Hints:
- By secondary structure, this protein is of the alpha/beta class.
- The protein contains 14 helices and 12 strands.
- α1 (22-33) links the parallel β1 (13-17) and β2 (37-42).
- α4 packs parallel to α6 (103-123).
- The protein starts with 12 loop residues before the first strand and ends with a helix.
Amino acid sequence: MIDIFHDFYRGKRVLVTGHTGFKGSWLSIWLHELGAEVIGVAQDPFTERDNFVLSGIGQRIKADIRADIRDGERIKEIFRQYQPEIVFHLAAQPLVRLSYDIPVETYQTNVMGTIHILEAIRVAESVKLGVMITTDKCYENKEQIWGYRENEPMGGYDPYSSSKGVAEIAIASWRRSFFNPKDYEKHGKSIASVRAGNVIGGGDWALDRIIPDCIKALEAGKPIEIRSSKAIRPWQHVLEPLSGYMLLAQKMWDEPVKYCEGWNFGPRAESITNVWDVASMVIENYGSGELKDLSDPDALHEAKLLMLDISKAKFQLGWEPRMSLGKCVQLVVDWYKRYKEEDAYTLCVEHIEKYLQE
């Protein structure tokens, strides 16, 4: 494994919430390959075809724990038992349209769940830093044509987006109240929040996401039904933001006061395009399929245009996206064409290597 982090993660105790999820499973594989002692805390995976299940990462890491982040005492107990040094908090209810069906549960998970993680970090002496993962949808979206910067107002139209905006406000509050950089010598902890756009990659089968929708249709020999063909998103491979989160954590470890802020991680400008174009690229790489536009003007509200400004990560972290949208979609489709016949863990490691060689 090419190690751009120079052995930083080797032997470190890293707790990942949401490790059974799409992003969490990829992060856990990468950290494990770098020699970290990964403690995973999450609920059951979504399907038996999820990357977490097929890769078998749960059997490889130090601890594979089922727990609900809404249970604050259970979370504190896990922190006491495993004494993590670094925390990546990814566990969430991550779907916009589902949040209209379960708004209360969405808030309980995304807001109170985040607060329970912050509280566990607060009382655990072992924890040096926490990277709290939210979303690009945490911003008050005005459908503007330029990207949002980290200092712009939080908001959100739907329950999911607004819950993430509230989570960001809570993170900022806990940072000021309990983890204030001015008092670092007293508490010894550094907390950052990170926001990324639409991530795509192998092993995602979540509802209402373009890549899983495409693959399910293609595997069934049916047309790909597109419900919001003109919606423009900042598409990026899942490994792009994960590399940013991991780099940020390394920087925070070395300079905890300097980097405990909010950070955007997004793709190159040319990777910001509409849903129809991305689905067309999937078909091209898969070698078959057709698209069907089912756009409904009366559908539940979802943002039509949302972009992030990643200048801060570029200039202050030295991070920037490695992959073009074309390469990204090519890699994603490659995973879905091979997962039935090949070992998924080996496939994921191969994709991490390919990403790092870009």
